């Protein structure tokens, strides 16, 4: 399941973040790539633990934890803190699948990468190329979102970032370990939660809402891993 989460950051906030990123000291993106993906990866990245990356990451996670769409779709257990990258001057990242397990620098805790997410900090018209191309069950999807918007997709997907041939593409990305490992089960719970939320608005007094909500939780209990 591919999910677009709009407006995580307002336009003024995004502009402030982008200005700070334009002044930052960037490193080669290969620093966090595995042996194989290092050959495919041509971009810049803020080093893990860079103060600006930490600040942006903390702000992002604070928003996400309050975002009903993200909470319902991801059912997050823990995350690998956001990393910030920049594609410019022909930079690209060829087709790959992300590593299954990640360990944040200086942490003993490991994160299984059930879900990947990219938050865009550049407006689509400010650069050419740079689409995030994701292969999902319905074929290939090209994602290039307004600044402040985020896409969430299964960590199992083959994906790439097309070459940026004009301007710069700033973005943050991170991985989430979900309470529910399987994408198909998570998608079903997300669908059901959405339907229950809609019914709660439209027919708030209907007695079946209690049964439906109970069924949602009983399915979740069956699949959850903590
Ligand atoms: Ni990737």
Automatic annotation (TrEMBL):
It comes from the Bacteria. Keywords: Dioxygenase, Iron, Metal-binding, Oxidoreductase, Vitamin C. PROSITE patterns: FE2OG_OXY. The keyword Mitochondrion does not apply. InterPro entries: Oxoglu/Fe-dep_dioxygenase_dom, PKHD_C, PKHD_hydroxylase, Pro_4_hyd_alph, Pro_4_hyd_alph_FE2OG_OXY. Its cofactor is L-ascorbate; Fe(2+). It holds the Pfam family PKHD_C. Fe cation binds at residues 96, 98, 159. Residues 78-178 form the Fe2OG dioxygenase domain. Binds 1 Fe(2+) ion per subunit. 2-oxoglutarate binds at residue 169. One of its GO terms (molecular function) is L-ascorbic acid binding. NCBIfam families: PRK05467.1-3, PRK05467.1-4. This is Fe2+-dependent dioxygenase. It comes from Pseudomonas vancouverensis.
């Amino acid at each position: 399941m591919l999910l677009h989460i709009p407006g995580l950051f307002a336009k003024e906030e995004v502009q402030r973040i982008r200005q700070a990123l334009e002044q930052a000291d960037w490193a080669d993106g290969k620093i966090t790539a595995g042996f194989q993906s290092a050959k495919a990866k041509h971009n810049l990245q803020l080093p893990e633990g860079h103060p600006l990356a930490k600040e942006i990451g903390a702000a992002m996670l604070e928003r996400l934890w309050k975002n009903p769409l993200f909470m319902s779709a991801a059912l997050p257990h823990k995350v690998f803190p956001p990393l910030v990258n920049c594609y410019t001057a022909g930079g690209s990242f060829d087709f790959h699948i992300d590593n299954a397990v990640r360990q944040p620098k200086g942490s003993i805790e490991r994160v299984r990468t059930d879900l990947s997410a990219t938050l865009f900090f550049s407006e689509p018209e400010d650069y050419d190329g740079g689409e995030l191309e994701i292969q999902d069950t319905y074929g290939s999807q090209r994602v290039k979102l307004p600044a402040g918007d985020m896409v969430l997709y299964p960590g199992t997907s083959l994906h790439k970032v097309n070459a940026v041939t004009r301007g710069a593409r700033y973005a943050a990305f991170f991985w989430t370990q979900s309470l529910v490992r399987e994408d198909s089960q998570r998608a079903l719970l997300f669908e059901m939660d959405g339907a229950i939320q809609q019914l709660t608005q439209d027919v708030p007094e209907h007695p079946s809402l209690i049964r439906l909500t109970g069924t949602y939780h009983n399915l979740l209990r069956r699949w959850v891993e903590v």
